[in-house]
């Protein structure tokens, strides 16, 4: 599977996990794909559902994709903008980056969001308590080379083509409202901030939020997949044991590239929590055996299955 990368990046992006998640999803052709935590949108964009609701509390993400949907941002418009701003960045260096950041924090222009997202340190998306984008410059004045601009504009074109073909809606909404709106035939994919790890994104994520999320998911009639972390070499995610013991849990090893140094980029056991069993009993037992004896460690393993 060739994964299509979205034009906006953020920490925790699931690019290398898309196929794994897709293989275990259960989306009917007439159901709605619902994402209460859109973030990068990489999973839903590659699912290409006929109908989708991409929701997030970060208005800048939603504004950006609505601008594409409304034709205010096209591949051509983005190309012209990035070439112009990229030339200023190459000439003025970090001074121009911080000028754009100040401009964005005042006006919130979607194209400025795109520029900052691709010129900032490590593609991190982070905002302060006042809602201001506060990620420092990524120290690459030559960032917007011709090939890089082409890559970004192709990503925008992919989204443009998709929103013209499918019924996709982008809404700024709290996860509670979004999950509550799901019908029985819908499918919910949740990728919230990871409790106990990196929770600073647009707002904070607390233990109470985590508990409320699981409570909402336990009461929904829709099928769901929840992405979270299971463990790393130092500790485990206690929320899984506390809230998810009655669900199917699948895990696989994954690297997140957020740290500035390669030596600080450690592997983590990624988990998906499902309220259904994506495998038949025979296939489930086979997967357990393969996980133990045959599959290389980067493949997923069965951690637990629902207690009936």
Overview of the molecule:
The protein is of the alpha/beta class. The protein folds into 2 domains: 15-57 and 173-304, Vaccinia Virus protein VP39 (Rossmann fold, 3-Layer(aba) Sandwich); 68-160, Adenine-specific Methyltransferase, Domain 2 (Adenine-specific Methyltransferase, domain 2, Orthogonal Bundle). It contains 11 helices and 8 strands. It has helices spanning 18-23, 42-47, 59-69, 75-92, 94-107, 110-119, 146-165, 175-180, 207-219, 238-243, 281-293, and strands at 32-35, 51-56, 167-172, 187-190, 223-231, 248-255, 267-274, 301-304. An 8-stranded mixed β-sheet has the order 3-2-1-4-5-7-6-8. β1, α2 and β2 form a beta-alpha-beta unit. α3 (59-69) packs across α6 (110-119) and α5 runs antiparallel to α6. The radius of gyration is 20 Å and the shape is globular. The two termini are 34 Å apart. Residues 258-263 and 292-300 have low confidence and may be disordered.
């Amino acid at each position: 599977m060739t994964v299509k990368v979205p034009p906006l990046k953020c920490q925790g992006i699931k690019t290398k996990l898309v196929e794994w998640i897709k293989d275990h999803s259960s989306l009917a052709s007439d159901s709605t794909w619902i994402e209460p935590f859109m973030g990068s949108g990489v999973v839903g964009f590659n699912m290409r559902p006929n109908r989708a609701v991409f929701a997030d509390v970060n208005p800048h993400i939603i504004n950006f994709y609505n601008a594409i949907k409304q034709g205010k941002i096209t591949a051509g418009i983005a190309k012209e903008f990035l070439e112009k701003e990229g030339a200023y960045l190459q000439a003025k260096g970090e001074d121009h980056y911080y000028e754009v950041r100040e401009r964005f924090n005042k006006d919130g222009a979607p194209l400025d969001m795109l520029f900052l997202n691709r010129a900032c340190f490590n593609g991190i998306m982070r905002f302060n308590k006042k809602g201001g984008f506060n990620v420092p410059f990524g120290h690459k004045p030559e960032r917007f080379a011709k090939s890089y601009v082409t890559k970004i504009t192709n990503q925008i074109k992919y989204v443009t083509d998709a929103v013209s073909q499918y019924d996709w809606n982008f809404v700024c909404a709290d996860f509670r409202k979004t999950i509550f709106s799901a019908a029985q035939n819908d499918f919910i994919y949740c990728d919230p901030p990871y409790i106990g790890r990196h929770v600073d994104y647009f707002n904070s994520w607390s233990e109470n939020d985590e508990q409320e999320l699981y409570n909402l998911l336990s009461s929904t009639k829709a099928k769901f997949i929840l992405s979270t972390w299971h463990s790393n070499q130092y500790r485990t995610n206690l929320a899984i044991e506390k809230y998810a013991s009655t669900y199917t849990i699948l895990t696989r090893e994954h690297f997140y590239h957020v740290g500035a140094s390669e030596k600080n980029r450690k592997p983590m056991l990624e988990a998906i929590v499902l309220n259904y069993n994506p495998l038949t009993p025979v296939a489930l037992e086979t997967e357990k055996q393969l996980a133990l004896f045959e599959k290389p460690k980067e493949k997923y393993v069965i951690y637990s299955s629902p207690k009936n």
